[in-house]
Amino acid sequence: MIRGREIATAAFMAWAVLACLGTKADAAQCGSSAAGFEAWKGQFAGEARAKGVGGSGIAALMQTNYAAATIAADRGQRSFGLSLDQFLAKRGASTIVARGRSLKQSQAALFASIQQRYGVPPGPLIAIWGMETGFGSQRGNQNMLSAVATLAYDCRRSEYFTEQLYAALQLIDRGALSASTRGSMHGEIGQTQFLPKNILAYGTGNLDVAANALNSTANFLKAHGWRAGAGYQPGEANFAAIQAWNAAQVYQRAIALMGRQIDGGEGAVER
Questions:
Q1: Which of 153, 166, 167, 204 has its CA 20 to 30 A from that of 159?
Q2: Residues 57, 169: contact at Cβ < 8 Å?
Q3: Contact in structure between 158 and 113 (CB atoms under 8 Å)
Q4: Mean pLDDT, all residues of the chain
Q5: How far apart (Å, rounded) are the C-alpha atoms in residues 185 and 150?
Q6: Residue 182: enclosing H or E segment and its boundaries?
Q7: Residues paired with 154 in a beta bridge
């Protein structure tokens, strides 16, 4: 009886291993150049259909092109390796703070509403808005779906962007985005630059509208542990929520610093 159970268990484990190997073999294979992109799209489309992606999403996927500019940008994010001083200068922190203080006053009712609902003060939201798109002036002109599909195909971060691609296809199926939606180099869209998966989870309305984007950003921060009234500088309770927004340490510190300057009303950017 024990021997029979051992044989059955061994047979099951062998089947499971073969099933896993088959899954990996059948999965769309990542690549490192444009050469395999068209074949990958066909493979991925089959997987997407099996996961419930509809005709609109599949049709949009098949229209995508390999985004060489996205790959170049992904390989060349040198600004995140700068010192804080250098990063602030490169990103125009003084200008962001000055404009941010003005917007905090002129749109006081909007920011008061956001703070009441999500507990997030104006400073960090305005800092993110200014840092990401220059307050909406630089939202990018890259085809969103091509950028995300290219990064899902590229072996460097395939797993992460595969999730983003499935989210983008869901949004297209729902009519929330289209095959022609434009965004930044990595597929981020809107006034504060949301990737598709975060749009699904935290987006509130059309993110090209500033009020919607700012509410969505506050919604993201609250979902990642933001506590009303707590500090958001490094070492304080809410800094972790800023870290969740962007993984680059110099970016996180810059947002905290500029947010404090906007909220506090001090003079020039200080460190």
A1: 204
A2: yes
A3: no
A4: 90
A5: 11
A6: strand 182-183
A7: 31
Residue 196 has pLDDT above 80, yes or no: yes
Cβ count near 249 (within 10 Å): 13
Would you say 245 and 235 are in contact if contact means Cβ atoms under 8 Å apart? no
pLDDT digits (tens, 9 = 90+) for 21-38: 344 445 789 999 999 999
In this structure, what token pair is assigned to residue 142?
């890259």
User: pLDDT tens for residues 54-103?
Assistant: 999 999 999 999 999 999 998 877 778 899 999 999 999 999 999 999 99
**Is there a contact between 142 and 183 (Cβ–Cβ < 8 Å)?**
yes
Q: 75: alpha, beta or left, given left = phi > 0 and alpha = psi -120 to 50?
A: alpha
pLDDT digits (tens, 9 = 90+) for 151-177: 999 999 999 999 999 999 999 999 999
Who's near 76: CB < 8 A, 6+ residues apart?
none
What pTM was estimated for this model as a whole?
0.86
